[in-house]
Write a structure and sequence with these properties.
By secondary structure, this protein is mainly beta. The chain folds into two domains: 62 residues, Alpha-Beta Complex (Type Iii Antifreeze Protein Isoform Hplc 12), CATH 3.90.1210; 59 residues, Roll (SH3 type barrels), CATH 2.30.30. The strands form four sheets. The chain has a five-stranded mixed β-barrel with strand order 6-7-9-10-11. The chain has a two-stranded antiparallel ribbon with strand order 1-2. The chain is elongated, with a radius of gyration of 22 Å. The relative contact order is 0.15. One of its GO terms (biological process) is bacterial-type flagellum assembly.
Length: 140
């Protein structure tokens, strides 16, 4: 039985291990496209092994050519930019209040950020819910 399992293991094709690397310098906050990444043979512990996990994401830090890309180097693309004027929305129990605010941070959808209410000058913590739209209150 051991002999059969050994022969089966030797006969089955080995799965190729791959590592995703930066094809060129990718600046932090840049959106990653197909031309920005490449795949090399060999597994690197902790690095991405599938290009589709990097494409469409945003670089959290500068990424350099030939270096493996790790999941912590990426984040979802920001939909609210720092200093952007955003619609500040509060919706609770049928009451909807909307005003303008200025984003003090960058944020992807669902991420928390600080926003200054332009009418009251109060800084609040909000959640990015769409391009140029943030939500505050209990239903964030």
């Amino acid at each position: 039985m051991r002999w059969f399992l050994l022969m089966l293991a030797l006969a089955s094709p080995a799965t190729a291990q791959e590592t995703v690397i930066a094809a060129g310098t990718i600046r932090g906050s840049a959106l990653i496209g197909p031309a920005d990444v490449a795949v090399i043979e060999g597994a690197t512990p902790g690095a991405l092994s599938d290009m589709s996990h990097a494409i469409g994401m945003e670089a959290r830090v500068n990424l350099y050519p030939g270096r493996p890309i790790r999941p912590g180097d990426l984040r979802p693309p920001a939909i609210v930019e720092r200093n952007e004027i955003v619609s500040l929305r509060y919706n609770y129990g049928g009451l909807l209040v909307m005003t303008e605010g200025r984003a003090l941070d960058r944020a992807a959808e669902g991420e928390a950020l600080r926003v200054i209410n332009l009418a009251s000058r109060q800084t609040v913590t909000a959640t990015a819910t769409g391009p140029g739209l943030v939500t505050v209150g209990p239903n964030r």
